[in-house]
Structure formats: structure tokens, C-alpha cells
Amino acid sequence: MSQNKDPVATTSTSTEVLEHFSRGKTFHVARRADALSDTPDGSSIADPDTERKKALTALTAEEEKKLIRRIDWRLIPLLALLYVMKKLDESNVSNARIMNKGTPRAILTQLNISSDEYGMITVLYTVRPPSAVQTEAGMFPGIILQLTYWYRPDEMATRLGWIYVCGSIAGIIGGVFAYAFNGVSGRLGVSGWQWLFIFEGATTIVLSALILFRLPDFPSTTSWLSEREKAFIQARLPPNAPRGAEENFSWGEIVTSLKDKRLWLFTLSWALQTCGGSGVKFYQSTIIANLGFSDIATAQLLNIPMSALAIIIIVTCTWLAGKGSIPIPLFPVAFTVIIVACYGVMTAYPSDVGVYIAMMIGNAVSTAWFPLMWPWRAQTTSRATGSAFAIGFVNSYGQVGDAIGPQMFLDKYEPRYQLPFGFSMGLIALCGWNCAYTWWVTRHTERDTRKHKLARLEAKKRNNTVLDDVSDHDLERAGR
């Protein structure tokens, strides 16, 4: 094992060996933009992976940097825009609940439903008719899956961070729109909440046309990449990553995914997190209004600091995770501890200001939980069908909490909802324990992924590329 605190490179005839300081991990590297065609003894490379290795050396470190930046600008803004539309849709149902509250223009009054019945609307965001399943239901897992065709798992945290940041900005925009349309309620005979739905729905329809024609598909089918760049992008992905040239469907990959206990552990974490956090988020505007800080319209604006704090947390934590020095699972586990503490304050503390601050921190951290979980999940998926199934499975069944969580916040618990906060705190605590156990189960793959990230960063400094890649050792140890 190397005694140095930095990776050390030793030169051979055509490749180098990069010895990482952590437990003596070694990686084989080659000079970029050099023809990798011979082994150290001068014979031809008989490795079946030769073409991949040649593609990896095709671009210099600077060329790779420019290429990834170009992909970022082509892909991430459009995916972020999709997510903004989704989050505006979700924030509508929360904001609309208190618009023009106590007047004939209130949504509960006009629909002639109770607060508890309104809470059942959240079920429609989780259990959908077939027509909705064909459209929005697959949108977000589709975003995650598409990222796996373009980026390595250790690169996804930063990209997902920016997508989630835009989602938090949507929370700010939604609060401002709700405030604005609350003031024009009654114009043309249309209530404020109806103006809100009409405006944001029409905006979604217009923007969807732009995204349909501009969003790239796979690297191999993209017109704005050269053949050399296409080969490089696909060669740099880990062996278990999906690729556009694969068969469309494989039952074997689905069976393998179902046998993998990590699928069920991640799904359980998602279900516990959404169940414990979705109710608090859904009733956020109502809880703020019940605290009596100000009038209803201004209470909408008090949602904005929570979204702003979420942006700060997401940017900071995904940036740190992208460096490769801190294990990604540490963030979700730590987040659950913070959320439990905040929900504890909301359960027991009598101060309105204290409840608001605790809700602001708890909901912000809860939002940041997801962009740190998805890269971890992507590390342990396999191939096109397996990845699509595993990501969709977790996203679908994990969302059962979105249907259950809001149903805990019944009218009889107003105005402080202390018992629902207590239940939410318990569910998040279970989520934290399950995340910690999942970290133990995936520890080998997660550790190797970080080591590979650090080795690549070190190799780039010398204009080298790492030829080795990460194997799913946790799946291999499971005997599958």
C-alpha cells in the first residue's frame, strides 16, 4: 500500500498504474489522445474491451471538459424545465387551498368539500388513471434514466442538484403566483385558484412543445456529437450502465432486479421518506396560515424562505458529493436526523416562530434528501431494462407515502397538527435507520465508485484516463 496521501503514478511502456492511497487501490491509466494499440511487451492487445479503451483515450482532458459542459447545456436546462412544471403542478394544490380563505371564492367553498376531502386530492398525484400513467407518471423516472445514458453515477449528484434547485425555484414562483392571483380573484368571473390553474396549465402545454423537439435522446443517436465523441461518452460509462444500442426489453434483467434486496431497501426508504414528509409539505401553506403571522395572501410569501433554504442546502451538498471525498449515503442519513429533530420541535414546541423555523429547515432538508439518493440508487442498477425497471419501481412504489402522508393531517388536529407531526417524525426515523442499513449493504460498490472518481480526477491532471471501471461487487457477493 502506498504511504503517500496522494495517488502515485508509475510509468510502463504504454500505460501507467495509478495507486490510490485508500487501501492500496490501483487503477490502470493511459495517456489521452495517444493510440492505445500495444501492450507493454509490444504485442497487440487481445482484450475484448480494446475498443472501449481506445475510445477512452480519444479525447484530451480539456476536450472532455468542453464536451461534458456542452452536454450539460443541451440536456440539464430542458430536464430542469420539465421538473419545474411538475413542481408547479404540485405546489398549486397546496397554495390553492388557502387562497381567498374565508370568502365565497375559496376553493373549499366553491367545490363544497371539507378540508379532509380536499386532502384526498393528493391520492390523484400517486394513484392515477391509465391516461395519466402514460404521460406524467413516467416523467421523473424518465429523467433519472436518461441521465444514466449520459453521465456516470458519481457525476449525477451535481446535475440532479441543479434540477432540484430549479424545482425549489418553482416553489418560490408558485408562492408568488398564488399571491398575485389571490389579488385578482373575481376578474372575468374567475376565482384566484382557477386563474392559478389556468395560467400554469397553459404554460406547461406551450413549453412541452419546445422540450419535445429539443431534448436529446441517446448519445449514439444525437446529431450534434461527432462519432468520436459518441464513442467516448458511451465508453466512459460504467459496465452496468444502460446504452441506447441494447435490446428494448429483457425479462431476465427484471427478474435479476427483483431478486436484488437492494431494490426493496431503496423502495422502503422512499416510501418512509415520502410518507413522513409529504403531509408536512402538502399542508405547509395551511400550517403557516394557522400560525397567525399575517393575512392569508402574505402567508403565501412565507413559503419562499423554505424554498430558498432548500436551494442553498442542495447546491452545497451536491457540490460536496460531486468531489468524491464524502460518501453519498452519509448525506441522506444525516438529513433524516435533522428532519427528526425539526419535527420534534414542531410536535412539542409552543412558539409559532419556533414551529415556522423548524418547518423551514425540515422541509428544506427533506427536499435535499432526494437528489442525494438518486445517484446512490443509480450506482446499483444494471443495463437498460434493469435500470429502467429499478428506477421506475422505486419511484412508483416509493411514492405510496404521497398518498398516505397527507391523510394524517385531519381537521381535528388543527391548528398545530401535533399528532401528525409525531407520526411523521417516527416514519422519518425509520427511514434513517433503513438508509444506514442500505449503506452497509452497498458499501463496497459505493466505496469503489468514490475511489474511481478520485482516480479519474487525479489522472486528468496528467492528461491521462483511467482504463479500469467499477464492478458491482455487492451484487457479486450476493451470488447473483
TrEMBL record:
Keyword Signal: no
Keywords for the protein's UniProt record, in alphabetical order: Membrane, Transmembrane, Transmembrane helix, Transport
GO molecular function: transmembrane transporter activity
Topology versus the membrane: Multi-pass membrane protein
Gene3D superfamilies (UniProt xref): MFS general substrate transporter like domains (1.20.1250.20)
GO cellular component: membrane
Protein's UniProt keywords contain Transmembrane helix: yes
Membrane-crossing segments per the record: 161-181, 193-213, 301-322, 328-346, 353-374, 421-441
Subcellular location per the Swiss-Prot or TrEMBL entry: Membrane
PANTHER family: PERMEASE-RELATED, TRANSPORTER, PUTATIVE (AFU_ORTHOLOGUE AFUA_6G08340)-RELATED
Protein name, per record: Uncharacterized protein
Origin species: Neoarthrinium moseri
Phylogenetic lineage: Eukaryota, Fungi, Dikarya, Ascomycota, Pezizomycotina
